[in-house]
Every structure is written in structure tokens, then in C-alpha cells.
């Protein structure tokens, strides 16, 4: 457990700088769509800090693949569950999606679909590399 926490913190710290970048992109789209021409400084600060937390957790939880000795589907389920809760919580707290069951269901459907596609692509790519390595050994 100690190794996992250490790796979680290391990974989270390396990638949490992406949080403010995410906020900047979101505001570029908001400003570009004409929905707003200014944003309160308090909101920007809140969203930058919450996006740092979002990115820290999302990056940190990837330690589950390298530190813990779990089968890939179990690790992927833990990873997906943690970042789903992380993303949904931050998105709702910041008002990035409305607190309505339809919005949450749509978010969940998009998230699960995208996450499953990514997991399947990574799994297939890894299996292909393993087959190549095995054929080279023999």
C-alpha cells in the first residue's frame, strides 16, 4: 500500500499541471461561442484549483496498473471507477454539467463508451506486442 500511495502522489504531481490547461481550453470554447465575455476571478480560481485536483487524481490512480498486482480488467475497472467519480464530482461542483439526471446519464454514457474504447485499444495493442515478442523469441 505504501508503494501505491508513493507512486500515486508522484504520478499525480507530474501531471496535475494539465488542470489549468483544461480550464483554459474550456474558457476558450465558452468565449468563442459568445456565451460569455468575462468570467469572475473567484470562479477562475475555483476551477483552476479543482482542475488541479481532477488531474492529480486521474494521473495518480494510473499507479494501479504498475504497483498493484491486479489483472488488467480489475485494474481498468478500479481506474475507470475512480476517474468517473473524480470527473463527475468536479464537473458538477463547477457547474460544467447541470445537476440533472439526464445530464449525468449522458455524461456517464459518453464516459463509459470512451473509457471502454481506450481500454480495448490499449489491450489489443499490448496483445499484439506480446505476440510479436513471443514470435521473435521462438
Describe the protein.
This protein is an all-alpha fold. It has one domain. It is 81% helix and 0% strand. The protein has 6 helices and no strands. It has helices at residues 2-15, 18-32, 41-60, 63-66, 72-93, 101-137. Helix 1 packs across helix 3, helix 2 (18-32) crosses helix 3 (41-60) and helix 5 (72-93) runs antiparallel to helix 6. The N and C termini lie far apart (38 Å). The model has no long low-confidence stretch (mean pLDDT 86).
Compute the number of strand runs: 0
The biggest beta sheet reads:
none
Give the mean pLDDT: 86
Percent helix among the residues?
over 70%
Helix-strand pattern, N to C?
HHHHHH
Annotation field: number of helices: 6
Alpha carbon gyration radius = 18 Å
List low-confidence stretches: none
Query: Which structural class matches the secondary elements?
Result: mainly alpha
Shape: elongated
How many distinct domains?
1
Amino acid at each position: 500500500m505504501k508503494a501505491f500511495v508513493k507512486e500515486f502522489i508522484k504520478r499525480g504531481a507530474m501531471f496535475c499541471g494539465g488542470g489549468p490547461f483544461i480550464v483554459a481550453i474550456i474558457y476558450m470554447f465558452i468565449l468563442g461561442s459568445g456565451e460569455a465575455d468575462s468570467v469572475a476571478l473567484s470562479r477562475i480560481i475555483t476551477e483552476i484549483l479543482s482542475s488541479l485536483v481532477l488531474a492529480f487524481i486521474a494521473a495518480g490512480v494510473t499507479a494501479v496498473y504498475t504497483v498493484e498486482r491486479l489483472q488488467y480488467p480489475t485494474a481498468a475497472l478500479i481506474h475507470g471507477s475512480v476517474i468517473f467519480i473524480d470527473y463527475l464530482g468536479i464537473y458538477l461542483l463547477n457547474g460544467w454539467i447541470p445537476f440533472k439526471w439526464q445530464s449525468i446519464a449522458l455524461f456517464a454514457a459518453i464516459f463509459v463508451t470512451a473509457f471502454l474504447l481506450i481500454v480495448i485499444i490499449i489491450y489489443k495493442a499490448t496483445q499484439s506486442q506480446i505476440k510479436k515478442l513471443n514470435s521473435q523469441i521462438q
